[in-house]
Amino acid sequence: MGTVAVHGLCKSFGKVQALDGVTLDVPDGSFFVVLGPSGAGKTTTLRAIAGLEKLDAGSVHLNGRDATGDAPATRDLAMVFQSYALYPRHTAYENIASPLRARRCSPSEIAAAVKQMSSLLHIERLLQRRPAQLSGGEMQRVALARALVRRPRAFLMDEPLTNLDLKLRVEMRTELTRIHRSLGATFVYVTNDQVEALSMADQVAVLKEGKVQQVGTPTEVYERPANQWVAGFVGSPPISLLACHAEGDRLVGAEGWTLPRPRWTTAEDGRALLLGLRAEDLSVEQRGNASLSGELYGLEPLGDRTVVDVRVGTEILKVKARPTVTGTPGERLLVTVDLDRAHLFDAGTGLSLAEAGR
Ligand SMILES: Nc1ncnc2c1ncn2[C@@H]1O[C@H](COP(=O)(O)OP(=O)(O)OP(=O)(O)O)[C@@H](O)[C@H]1O
């Protein structure tokens, strides 16, 4: 069993409110990602779970038991950080074995556990090397093996892939998902990288300025963002947000455009709204059920696709297009919109108003 639950966590550092009522429920065996920008309070949340932070308010429950006052060493959690923190003079084998030695396991138990973890992480051939003889990715694997070998009730991982180059990071994402599946352990994983979050998580909690904005599956967070901020933070290229209001059966843009009012919206006429349109729900070819007129502002070729920036008045729409798309800045373009997939937010509160009516 490895459930982790935190309730109403509050923590200030001087004038900075790092955590402002954080409540999370991490089910046993889940890959739970805490996603947020720098300074959101992610590390402080992990440290609170580990017992490394004295809280102003709130509680931490491990396996359903209140562990708020427990010393870190008694919580049976393993932390994996960005920095590998390997013992430089020890071989990879000795590094991985160290937590078991500290527990006074027998040499045969240690050998079996190191063998199993190194095979899971594909590092068997590196066991006799010292950290200086390993690449960053290899060191990260050794550090992971050292954390995993202990078999704690849950793993707390603080941006463990940040120091790796892009190719390795992508590889390690797949590896971590595989390792998680084969161990069946609980992972609480902190990152500011939304691709990492969406690709690995069972559940994502989106954090901003010490407050949880939304908790859901990656699909829920992407497809049904609770507010404008989550919509903008999750997704690449970022969602385009256009100021508008409803008027009868039309949506009228601050920039003068109009679109049919989506059937599902209940917003009263005149209320200030933001229309959120994701790049893949827009097209510069004739595809959607309504259109906006603008001019080509720029092209961003990304290999498998090109992002077309279209200027509508003073606002820029990001449109996903085929890699072969061409055009000259300034030329007129018609952007078709899949309104069934559009999002509407209250411009004042930022909250989504779509879900109730869909
Ligand atoms: N020991 C500390 N003393 C003072 N301020 C701190 C301390 N630890 C964290 N903070 C502040 O609390 C806020 C939250 O920090 P935290 O490290 O939890 O954010 P984070 O989401 O993990 O950010 P990052 O992605 O940059 O690591 C930040 O404004 C940070 O500057």
Describe this structure in words.
The protein is built from eight helices and 20 strands. By secondary structure, the chain is α+β, with helices and mostly antiparallel strands. The chain has two domains: 4-226, Rossmann fold (3-Layer(aba) Sandwich); 230-357, OB fold (Dihydrolipoamide Acetyltransferase, E2P), CATH 2.40.50.140. Helix 2 (92-102) crosses helix 3 and helix 2 packs parallel to helix 4 (136-148). The longest helix is centred in the middle third of the chain and has 18 residues, at 166-183. It is elongated, with a radius of gyration of 24 Å. The protein starts with a strand and ends in a 12-residue tail after the last strand. 40% of the residues are buried.
How many DSSP-defined strands? 20
Average residue-wise pLDDT:
91
How many helical stretches?
A: 8
By CATH, the topology of the largest domain is: Rossmann fold
